[in-house]
Amino acid sequence: GAVVSQHPSWVICKSGTSVKIECRSLDFQATTMFWYRQFPKQSLMLMATSNEGSKATYEQGVEKDKFLINHASLTLSTLTVTSAHPEDSSFYICSAGPPAVTQETQYFGPGTRLLVL
Amino acid sequence: DQQVKQNSPSLSVQEGRISILNCDYTNSMFDYFLWYKKYPAEGPTFLISISSIKDKNEDGRFTVFLNKSAKHLSLHIVPSQPGDSAVYFCAAGGGQNFVFGPGTRLSVLP
Q1: Residue A99, phi then psi, degrees to nearest 5
Q2: What share of chain B is helix, strand, coil (3-state, %, to 5)?
Q3: Any residues with CB less than 8 A from the CB of A77 and at least 6 apart, and which?
Q4: A45, A75, A87, B26: least surrounded by Cβ within 10 Å?
């Protein structure tokens, strides 16, 4: 089946630093990828939709200057948490789907655990 | 190798009948399971969960069954309604990290 990877799986950083998380589709091209934040045992919160070759679309309440998204190729999207603070500590997940079934079938990455000290 | 599998990519059910969505997992350490529902162009929304100490959890029309020995869970929707048409994801994990299945598209026909 389709595989989506994320790197790193774990990151610990100091407050005020920036952290970049990568999301890759390994065996298909994804014109659209989605970034989520998950709170413990709760729903996924859609943060933004990453569009290849154009600007990301952010959900209401998500600061675009804080969560920078770049979708430079059909297999890679990056999320950069800028000037991270402890309240940004969370589990970040990306998903992507083959273009023919975009937004229907979605393959989720394994997630990245961010801890800001 | 997928740790969480949903082997039926799609399912069609008549309105008023029961919808049964299945999910299998491989990691015996998983102790918490969730079901999400996703409409097109929206993020998944939490539907129902179950912990490994239970084998059934019910919320209105939605019931989740867990068979730990078989590493299998299922979501039952009774009666099914057209508004239930969506993609359903199961997720399994422990603590705060979860692994998601690829989803099953449910179509409820009027």
Answers
A1: -50, -35
A2: 5, 55, 40
A3: A22, A23, A30, A33, A35, A50, A52, A69, A70, A71, A94, A96
A4: A87
CA-to-CA distance for A109 and A107, rounded, in angstroms? 7
pLDDT at position B7 is: 87
Contact B43 A44 (CB under 8 A): yes
Residue B20: exposure state from Cβ atoms within 10 A (0-12, 13-18, ≥19) = middle
Range B60-65, long-range pairs (CB < 8 A, 24+ positions): B62/B35, B64/B33, B64/B35
**DSSP secondary structure letter of residue A17:** -
Chain B CB contacts of A104 below 8 Å: 40, 87, 103, 105
Residues 41-60 of chain B with CB under 8 A from chain A are 41-46, 49
Closest CA to B97 of A104, A108, A96, A75: A108
**Alpha-carbon gap, residue B75 to B85, rounded angstroms:** 14
**Higher model confidence: residue B8 or residue A32?**
B8
For tokens 């990455």, name the residue.
Answer: A109
- Is the pLDDT at B55 greater than 90? The verdict is yes
